[in-house]
Amino acid sequence: MKDQIQIKVTKRSPAYWRVTFDHPPLNIFRPEMLPQVNEIITALETDEQVKVVVFDSAVEGFFLIHLDFLARLDDLAHLPPGPTGLHPWPEMLGRLSRAPVVSIASIRGRATGMGSELALACDMRFASREKAILSQFEVGAGLVPGGGPMAQLTRLMGRGRALEVILSANDIPGDLAELYGYVNRSLPDADLDGFVDALATRIASFDKRTLLDIRRLVNVAGLPSDIEIESGWNACVASMARPATQERIKELIGRGFCKPGEAEDRLGEFVGQHGR
Amino acid sequence: MKDQIQIKVTKRSPAYWRVTFDHPPLNIFRPEMLPQVNEIITALETDEQVKVVVFDSAVEGFFLIHLDFLARLDDLAHLPPGPTGLHPWPEMLGRLSRAPVVSIASIRGRATGMGSELALACDMRFASREKAILSQFEVGAGLVPGGGPMAQLTRLMGRGRALEVILSANDIPGDLAELYGYVNRSLPDADLDGFVDALATRIASFDKRTLLDIRRLVNVAGLPSDIEIESGWNACVASMARPATQERIKELIGRGFCKPGEAEDRLGEFVGQHGR
Amino acid sequence: MKDQIQIKVTKRSPAYWRVTFDHPPLNIFRPEMLPQVNEIITALETDEQVKVVVFDSAVEGFFLIHLDFLARLDDLAHLPPGPTGLHPWPEMLGRLSRAPVVSIASIRGRATGMGSELALACDMRFASREKAILSQFEVGAGLVPGGGPMAQLTRLMGRGRALEVILSANDIPGDLAELYGYVNRSLPDADLDGFVDALATRIASFDKRTLLDIRRLVNVAGLPSDIEIESGWNACVASMARPATQERIKELIGRGFCKPGEAEDRLGEFVGQHGR
Known about the structure:
The structure is a homotrimer.
Chain A: E1 7-13, E2 16-21, H1 33-46, E3 52-57, E4 62-64, H2 74-77, H3 88-98, E5 102-112, H4 114-121, E6 124-135, H5 149-168, E7 172-173, H6 174-180, E8 185-187, H7 189-204, H8 208-222, H9 226-241, H10 243-254, H11 262-265, H12 267-271
Parallel strand pairs in A: 2-3, 3-5, 4-5, 5-6, 6-8
Antiparallel strand pairs in A: 1-2, 6-7
């Protein structure tokens, strides 16, 4: 399992790559996916020709979701920190936001937890109006999210809506995600692929140096500092260690969490039923 | 009058409280309400079980409005500063934004001046589509608003829309408030209570420590500093002292300001008719 | 040509001025317009009675567009820096955002490049739903925009949407501009003039000192620092000097750029066809 490739890279052209999550049935994030994503980010950082990358999913109903709590979490927890001193997950997200390539998340199906965080680290997000659902479900499991949504969502949609999204742990469908600025736009499902492809192709026709200078300047006002991200990560780790959280996760797993079925198909509803 | 309770606290459960403004006919803010609100904030800060508080109104047509300029304003102006050095009004708002409880404003009727500022200090705001009207009317009375809307609205909706709201002093109905991000969402009036109650109940089912860690991290990017709030308060006090302002307020009072009737029912229109 | 007046100032009242761009057929920005705009800003800064200024256009189809690349650009490039040390173009924009007058852009027709940047430096922006098109087309010509849209758009609409607007170089029509917060609101074309006139008249009825104190406080959170703007300007100048950019501009000019016709009428589409 460990070496199985769950993420496919396709080069539509030297300047325009696609990264497709293909880990059925849930596109759940397994610890061994992190090195795979890291390798892709490194490729994007070092390739001289690539200008645009689109992240999407090959799995019906799921863009990319949360950590697989049924996996050996030690594989993830005990990873050494990356060069910035951050844990490799938030470090990878920060690298993506600053990598010399324009990144677009094309969201169809559920993007929650790490899936939402990866989308937020991208430069732009477009969602299927009918089929996209975004969320940060973590508080429903007693957890503080670790990949920076407190920092990212507050900058995208303001304090009030960011607090609602994260503290409610609710499912956010495409149109509400557009209203709140969680995504750039939601599009009719039939139009999403064509729209994103045209946009990526267009951006890939522009000058790489100019694209990156612009992105660097937008990042000045648009990206949180590493310290703010680190503070969120530390709160996540601390929340994971609390007995109340461990018990909550155990209860969710007993009811079907991390397995195909109602729990993951209606995660917002599911985590709201704790203790009932 | 001074000791009359104008704000009711109801505990739906140990974890979920309601605070209801009930000072008919206008829910106008009288100086003696400030100690009452402060006492409630202290209770919220010290109670170990409360996780969510909803602010609403029992008065038809008014959520909570501005200071009663017919009252003895000295009672308010000469209050000693709170522990942070701020005047007790902005200090109370800052305490609310940081108190160990998630706060939701459920807005039906007019929320202007201090009513709008209290809603902005809450973590989230939901509005009746048909019956909510938000505004910062102050410039219509020659005043700089004192409770931080320059800082809060700019962060919620950007500079252009914040300037429009505050410099126009216009009424902002529910749908426009939603478009601008003044509120999280506007809902059909018939749905507002059920929606807010379900959200509050849901959040109250989550872990308090985790909720508060998340809120603390959102506050990093989402809340203004005390110095920025203090600067706004000082500009408010200075504007109050200007003869032009005193004259403007006197003229408004002569036309019915702070009394039931057209002036308060159509405050946006009313303050736009100065000197006509 | 050099001394021809292309910008008209009309005083609707001592407190309410209009500034109208009237340089048919394109309202293209010629180097000699900069001193004219500077003179108007100086007049707005020194007049004691003016409280509101509205910027609009007398040219069908164009609010104000980009630099005329067919002009002697040396006239613009070799201007000495202004008092803050910035190049006179970004310096003028910063002066407008801080000038002792409330500024409103009333946008009908195309506002791209410097036209979009001027609108973004205003306090508020209102757009014709049918006839306004905003954009930052620059990356389509290999250029980093110089007048601060990376800083301004990121603060108005968040990182994701700002990156889409600037990196796509696409036309943004009125309704999308409203959704993204690029403008305060888009209004039916027939209502735009009446709406803006009523708002300007209303604001002009308020106290100047109070208006400016409020604006100063909104600017604290809403405006970028001079250093951030300077960094963007330097990236613009550097991009201009790159051979790839010079070649791209030459190619665009060969296909009709900066002249009346399809190129400017459909600029978004036009710059997306490079190399096809």
